[in-house]
Amino acid sequence: MPNFQLKKTAGFFLAAALCIPGVFSGGSRDIEPAWYVRANGSDTNTGLSSRSPFKTLARALEAAKTSDTLLILVMEELTDRSEENSRDRESVFHIAETGNRAITIRGASDKARLSAARTNKRVLRIARDAEIRLENIEITGGQSVIGGGILAEQNAVLTVAAGTRIRENQAETGGGIAFTGHGILILEDGDISENRATAGGGIFFSSLVDGGVSGRFLMTGGRVANNKAEELGGGIMLADSPTDPAGEFRLNGGTISGNTASGGGGVLFFCRDKTATRLAISETKIMSNTAVYGGGILLNNGSFVITGGLIWNNHADAEGGGISYDSGAVSELNGGVILNNRSDGMGGGMVVKQGTVTLSGGFIGGSSAKRGGGVDILYNAVFTCQGGQIAGSESVETPNRADGMGDAAFKENGTLHLRNTAVPETEMFSSVNFAGWN
Question: What's the total number of domains in the chain?
Answer without folding.
Answer: 2
